[in-house]
Fold this protein.
Amino acid sequence: MKLLYHMACYSLALVWIFTGLTSIFFAPEVGFGILAHAQITGVLAQVAVYGGGGLDIVLGFWLMTRYALKYCCLAQIVTICTYSVLLTFIDASFWLHPFGPVTKNLPILVLITWLYQVDKEARGGKL
């Protein structure tokens, strides 16, 4: 169980960090394109893409430290739900996308919730 706990933390951290790096450095045009579809351009789009990417990276590194993990889990849940709601309003077709950019959030939320639940046991050495 302890190995699963660590794997969950690091795999989620990797998702957050890689998503943030992709948003900022590897493919920011994808985020700008999605936002442009909703007539969000200019400075607001830059804040959304680069701010969201930065937030993702911070969440990933925070998760790796496991410092105040319960708050980190809550921040992740709020972030994922916010992104999902915004994307639903911007372009609901992402729910039906073959790569599942929104539907993948559901099992990720379950994993984050599991981490939230077992954190106390892990910190107490019971895992």
Q: What stands out?
A: Residues 80 and 124 are 28 Å apart (CA to CA). The two ends are 6 Å apart (CA to CA). The chain has a mean pLDDT of 95.
